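so my prof wants the structure for this chain in the tokens format not the other one, which i didnt know existed until like an hour ago. anyway here's the sequence
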Amino acid sequence: MIGEKTVHDHPFTASTASEQPGIEFSFLCSRSCSAKHMTLGTREKIWLFVAVTYLFQGITYSEELRRMKRAVHPEAFMSINELITYKGYPSEEYEVMTEDGYTITINRIPYGTQNQGSPASRPVVFLQHGLLGDASNWVTNMPNNSLGFLLADAGFDVWMGNSRGNRWSRKHQKYSIDQDEFWAFSFDEMAKFDLPAAINFILEKTGQEKLYYIGYSQGTTIAFIAFSTMPELAQKIKLYFALAPVTTIKYAKGPATKLLYLPEKVLRGMLGKREFLPQTECLTRIIAPVCSHQAFARLCRSVFFNLGGCNLKNIDVNRINVYIAQTSAGTSVQNIIHWSQEVRSGKFQAYDWGSSKKNMEKYQQVAASGSVCWWRRTRDRGRRQKQGNQSRGKLLIHTRSWSLSLFPVSIKM
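here's what i got, hopefully its the right format
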């Protein structure tokens, strides 16, 4: 039932991850081929594949992997509700229907551990994650370092969104995730449909007229669009806090953003039409234990955090396997294509559907009513300082040594 909540009032008790059976690998040849017709490169590739297959099979069944699994923090495999209740906080979960038929999940921490009064009397704050994120981003650290818990303990009624297409918002009134039509969306639709549905539901549920909005990365992008094009929605915002705000990404230079410079046809050929980087339980249960091992920990940190820029002073390195296991939550390929269009055009504009007939009306900048606080980070390989100066508002809080990928999990929040 849409709008129905799931309440978790008691802490989740997590036992050590049980040993999982190994993954069987098999190499099947659909046809035989003569060795004399093989090139040296082909033969090498086959032997490499066989070697890697047996290596992973051996690791999967080994006692060493079992020890690595036991070393993984139990929070690595928890849901958002479990992450919240594991730390002793109350948790509620709601499903909300958008105007275009998607069902998005919203998580709530109605009060903190030290203030259990009526939520109706508390100021409401809504947190919206960034690209490839989910609501777990706000509760992944310990209570004294997680923004969701900090706000709850400070007396706020905390709500956290999950954008369409991530691992918690994969339902539609008409389409299934196996249909191309389900994935035909980008941050345009998140701004036009997801954000209004979430905000209106929260205000109706709490009986309040306005709320505080905190967006991170793409969470700021959809807010800029929504609050600029829907003044009636902007009127419901007391104050908008923009963490690592993004509009155009013309000056992006990070390793991950280089993918966006590829021609659109190439991207579509590589990525397909549906989802991009979905989280799979099977892969998570392999990667998290491996990254918990001392021999691989540094490599995992380097690969994971250098994608967006990193200052390890701002994170709890002992929770690397938790961060990695909870990432990424996935999005649509069309959303990635939209960001690619932003890179190549250098403009903050609506998604280009490829023809004048299908093209949506281009985004028009309108001064949003209400106040905006803008946080920018210095160590961001995904977006250069020049870009931030293009679209920043009157109030800029400049903080050194923060990077785009680290805002939600920073221990200096």
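also thought this was worth mentioning. Residues 40-71 form one domain.
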